Amino acid sequence: MTTKTNQTNQYVNFINGEWVSAVNEEKIVNYNPANNEEVVGEVANSSEEDLNKAVRSAKTAAKGWKGRSGAERGQYLYKVADIMESRLEEIAECMTREMGKTYPEAKGETARGVAILRYYAGEGMRAVGDVIPSTDSDALMFTTRVPLGVVGVITPWNFPVAIPIWKSAPALIYGNSVVLKPATEGAVTCAKVIECFAEAGLPKGVVNMVTGPGSVIGQAIAEHPDIHGITFTGSNQVGKQIGHEALARGAKYQLEMGGKNPVIVTEDADLDLAVDATISGGLKSTGQKCTATSRVILLDGIYDKFKERLLEKVKEISVGNGMRDGSWMGPCVSERQLENVLYYIQKGEEEGGQLLAGGKQLKDDGREKGYFVEPTVFENVNSEMTIAQEEIFGPVLALMKVDSLEEALDLANDVEYGLSASIFTTNIQQMLSFIKDMDAGLVRINAESAGVELQAPFGGMKQSSSHSREQGQAAKEFFTSIKTVFVK
Ligand SMILES: NC(=O)c1ccc[n+]([C@@H]2O[C@H](COP(=O)([O-])OP(=O)(O)OC[C@H]3O[C@@H](n4cnc5c(N)ncnc54)[C@H](O)[C@@H]3O)[C@@H](O)[C@H]2O)c1
Ligand SMILES: O=CCCC(=O)C(=O)O
């Protein structure tokens, strides 16, 4: 297979099947967060006019795309998957250079993108409705599903391949056209994904990408009368705003937002497993996952032993450029994100938390020009403290001691979020209590809080989502409307 790669990483918008500059010709240059002097690439700094062009093209394309069979739409997605697979290393390298995630993690994410494409490609051949017995014995009653029309996709930077794909692929397979606006910090990587769609030859206008500031392009998506569905992943503040705007004009919306995810470790747990999972769940991707472990709730009897083993392993973590062999943890995505993490660390100390490890920016050993921070562990943290309540989105763990599982669950639930949670225990009753009483959309037993499987529904409770779910079969609920048909 021949694939076209853009070696210079200079991208513009993708509208109506063509790469086009923003009307104002302005550009945004992205730098490597591991070395802020290294240019990674550039994207268009678009205006509302560009977004309007993309929506017009998506609107025109929607009718023809909807008219194709699911199997035919699926064939395009299989093709995109094959192209992306052939470019996996190039895309992963770009991701590492653009947003800092280590190269092995970036390769894993890109492979996941390929798998998501194939999963939804297969959906084109699966059932979409039910036959329901009518009270009229001469009638046939059934449900079918129809696409929403044009879908606006607004995505964050922390999974610049997987999230745009887990939203766009189901939107497309169920017959919608897409206008995607990726977060600027991952936009060059996302443009490479769009390049794979372009090369697969989807009909023009079916997939469009417009880059630029969220306050301009994201806002215009939220307000555009011809966008019938908005799927958003990002912060609570922005999500809520989009939800209000979508509701006001009657558009369907789906918001996937932040988390403040706990791990509970009970006295009968396999401690080595729990320590490894706490480190992986809390610190991989520099803690920049919505599912990252943030609060570590430990039963009194194992507190000291767990703490000792955790600190031993945290000290071994190697922080550096994600492209370097041996770097386990990369930089924060941006200077702003680094400052945010340092702010929370300071706040944690001011409010009485005790620093056990880390806490500082790393500026030595080739890390002078990057946004590196030490993996950080606090103890003496209680639920009233800011670091126990607010999403940090950085490599910071807060240890909290409790006397019983009941107390652990109360503490775990004592936040506004409810995205993911995990418990380490060998006791089946404790597992069952956790499954029943933990207020989170994803609960994991003897496994880290992060780790989403593409074939299962994903989403949060409480303030973590608009109570919708995405991925797996759940995507069908958002990207289609049910039509009940009565035939006589
Ligand atoms: N629940 C999940 O599945 C999930 C997954 C990944 C990330 N997240 C969350 O995302 C956040 C980090 O990502 P982020 O910093 O990119 O979030 P963000 O809310 O700042 O940005 C998300 C997207 O919204 C756009 N945006 C910004 N302002 C906007 C506006 N006024 N109107 C419309 N769009 C606007 C951004 O440009 C970006 O594309 C964290 O809170 C994290 O928990 C959640
Ligand atoms: O950042 C949110 C997505 C988390 C995820 O995909 C995972 O934990 O695997």
UniProtKB/TrEMBL annotation:
Query: Among its keywords, does the record have Oxidoreductase?
Result: yes
Checking Pfam families in the record gives: Aldedh (PF00171)
**Which keywords are on file for this protein?**
Oxidoreductase
- One term of GO molecular function: oxidoreductase activity, acting on the aldehyde or oxo group of donors, NAD or NADP as acceptor
Query: Residues in the active site?
Result: E256
- Which top-rank group of organisms is this from? Bacteria
> Where would I find the Aldehyde dehydrogenase domain in this sequence?
19-485
- What PANTHER family has UniProt attached to this entry? ALDEHYDE DEHYDROGENASE-RELATED
Task: Name the protein family.
Answer: Belongs to the aldehyde dehydrogenase family.
What is the name of this protein?
A: Aldehyde dehydrogenase (NAD+)
Q: Which organism is it from?
A: Halobacillus dabanensis
